[in-house]
Design a protein that fits this description.
Layout: H1 2-5, E1 12-14, E2 19-21, H2 25-37, H3 56-72, E3 78-87, E4 90-100, H4 102-105, E5 107-114, H5 123-138, E6 143-149, H6 153-161, E7 165-174, E8 177-187, H7 188-193, E9 200-202
Parallel strand pairs: 5-6
Antiparallel strand pairs: 1-2, 1-9, 2-3, 3-4, 4-5, 6-8, 7-8
Helix pairs in contact: 2-3
The structure holds coenzyme A (COA).
């Protein structure tokens, strides 16, 4: 019923070990609890928006509100698809695909987080490959972009493995500190040259108009 009105609820991306899909309410709560338990080690600050730096309850609510905000603001001109990452039904984290003016620009950006116990097991690479398959193979993206702090070795590692190329830097204020991020770009051509894991995307036909295509 919900998926009839909001077909993104019927979109399922399957990678060898993972399922990526829009979380239903109780699943979103489980993802929020996972974030409350920790998204990174205490001394790390991987995000420009400091959503992980509050108390566990604040972190959990940031996950809920982020998802509600993204869905509430959804439109073909600007969208942000935050998908739950599940393994055998267990929530591991979230991966997001965003775009503005996608029908014209044909570029997406990605971001992700995993519960800290799930880092370093290849799930981040698998989840990114899943949303890139949606972007390139289903939506016809021309490029995928991401911005990563230079000291975020795990996120840099995911992008390197998937063939992203360096595309300059950006400098932002994080409090009083100027922090440098690498801008990374994966072109459609580079994606097409890569050897990719098996990924299937179900339910995309009903969603196409929501993406503006
Ligand atoms: C970033 C994140 C999603 C990556 O997912 P992950 O599952 O931990 O990463 P993977 O296991 O797929 O690793 C990808 C590559 O990076 C390397 N890598 C992973 N963690 C690393 C670390 N701490 N230091 C150096 N290299 C690392 C891996 O070795 C792997 O390369 P390899 O297969 O050639 O060995 C996850 O670590 C995370 O949620 N981090 C906290 C939040 C965050 O930083 N989000 C991104 C903000 S831009």
């Amino acid at each position: 019923m919900l998926a009839d009105l909001w077909p993104l609820y019927g979109l399922i991306i399957a990678t060898p070990r993972l399922e990526l899909r829009l979380a239903r309410d109780e699943e979103l709560a489980a993802l929020a609890v996972l974030a409350a338990r920790g998204v990174h080690r205490p001394h790390e600050r991987p995000f420009l928006t400091p959503w992980t730096e509050g108390s566990p309850d604040e972190r959990a609510r940031a996950v809920l509100q982020g998802q509600w905000r993204d869905l509430g603001r959804w439109g073909p001109a600007a969208w942000a698809l935050g998908l739950g990452v599940f393994r055998d039904g267990e929530p591991l984290g979230m991966v997001a695909l965003r775009a503005r003016d996608f029908p014209v620009v044909r570029e997406v950006t990605t971001s992700s987080w995993l519960g800290v116990d799930h880092h370093g097991q290849g799930y981040g690479t698998e989840a990114r490959a899943g949303v890139l398959t949606l972007a390139f193979d289903c939506l016809g993206a021309r490029a995928a972009l991401t911005e990563v702090f230079q000291d975020n070795h795990a996120s840099q590692g995911v992008s390197r493995k998937l063939g992203y190329e360096h595309d300059g830097i950006s400098v932002d204020a994080r409090g009083d500190e100027a922090v440098v991020s690498d801008r990374l770009r994966l072109s459609r051509e580079k994606w097409a040259q890569g050897q990719h894991m098996a990924v299937t995307v179900d339910g995309i036909a009903a969603c196409r108009s929501m993406f503006g295509i």
